[in-house]
Specification:
65 residues, globular
């Protein structure tokens, strides 16, 4: 059975560029949030994805963002 914990929804262009361009992680699809109309990208949760998210968080935390 598949649930939302199997996927990561990215709403940040900065994070999206990091995942795609710096880490080469492919996304499944993109769309618009049905209430806010904010663009998002759907990624499959993998070990590489989780590591990239931790790295991104640490970089931005260390940079004071």
């Amino acid at each position: 059975m598949v649930n939302d914990k199997d996927y990561f929804y990215c709403y940040s262009m900065k994070l999206f560029k990091f995942l795609r361009m710096d880490r080469g992680i492919s996304y499944i699809c993109s769309g618009l949030h049905e209430k806010t109309f904010q663009k998002f990208w759907q990624f499959k949760r993998t070990e590489d994805m989780n590591k990239a998210l931790v790295e991104f968080s640490q970089r931005h935390y260390d940079a004071g963002e």
